[in-house]
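An instance follows:
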Amino acid sequence: MNATVSTAIFAAFMVLTVVLGLLAVRGRGAGTSRAGLTEWSVGGRSLGTVFIWVLMAGESYTSFSYLGAAGWGYNFGAPVLYVLAYMSCGYAIGYVVGPMLWAYARRHGLVGITDIVAHRYRRPWLGAAVAVLATVCLLPYIQLQIAGMGVVVSTISYGTISLNWAYFIGFAVTTGFVVVSGLRGSAWVSVLKDILVIVTLGFLAVYVPLHYFGGYGPFLDRIVAEKPQWLTFPGHASGGLGQSWFISTTLINSLTVVIFPTTVAGYLGARNADVLRRNAMYLPFYNVLLFVPMLLGLAALFVVPGLTGAGSNLALFKLVVDSLPAWAVGVIGVAAALSSIVPMAVFMLVIGTMWGRSVLGAVPRLASRQKLWSQLVVVVAGALALALTYTAPNTLVRLSLISYEGMAQLVPMLLLGLVWRRLTIYAAVSGLVAGFTLVCVLVFGGHDPVWGVNAGIVGLAVNVLVTLAVTWLGPRERVDDRPDAEVLALEDEFRRAEAAASGTR
């Protein structure tokens, strides 16, 4: 009976998710190929404050919020707070960077980071190369969301839905609406997801401490008395995730998140720059909710002790299934499932846009059908992640180790290149190659953290040094290869953004 009730609730919400995604584009024509791609990939650059807020919050609240955050709290304790730290710092940086990227992309009709890079350095092949690099870093996230949803659905159905079927449901629902409705559909579904996330996490924040411990006072007293090592760095059995790791990880992730392809897609979908500035101020309030799964992971230490390995990621759901009626389990499961579907949709959308625009769309014979190629790539990328989830899950999990650290190496090429006219393509590419290679060597060689510091920040430091050295000492670009007057105007745009930020303060 429990399985029937919770599964029925889950099924009803999955149907509602697809319907919402399809309704999002009702009455919006495709237009020309280029206009159609803009509408599909960045919502026609017309999304207001609410839609941008829920969309970008949706990228932050993934299945990690219900599984990984609780699992980290259960296993390690304090080090999991790095998530709150880097997101909040990233929003502050995005207050300046978001409007700058939005203005540049809008002026030149660009729809993603590959477009921006290709336009800035006047090299279409560079946009294609960045698309390949970004795809390598993003595919693991699709696989992780598929796997996360599979675990959630299998758990809330009390085992009646197998992991394999749950994986497929996640892929099918996401592909079903994102191919048709693009970024706008993801924003509409994000509204439903965020309502459920706020309600369910708010409820659990009150219910679990009262039900199992009699309130927050006894709960926190017990943690201090019995698990004090979970409350200090480097946490419990975390392998050395101490203060240096926390600071360096916060720094590298806060820089990376503002140029992450999915974040940039959110920036470019905004109606105007003020929407992004308001969004940067409002998003940190949403971060408060992330304390809930972290605390519930600590609560699970006493309620369901002995969870090991991947089982610790189910710490929160063990509490839920153990004590709540089936209908409540179903609703909480839907919130967690949508926390997989929304970011997965944006990841797939971004990969499709990059390839449809910068790789396949760069071929003259294919350029007239960029939106179609982008939609096809969405299906291929999702299907590839799904197939690897079934057959070789460790392949993408292994790649996920370098996802954030690898994407961080695009920061100098993208941000420094937009505000510093002297940066040459030779310097940008040299820095990227040096930094990304070092990150791969350190991470795959088992040296992350290195000397207690995140390997990504070490790679980024080398990246910047190489970039500066080649700019000053390396070959100069030909006159016709230099950024034109419109590109150089980004320096003025950057100064105006800084002035706006100072005025707000």
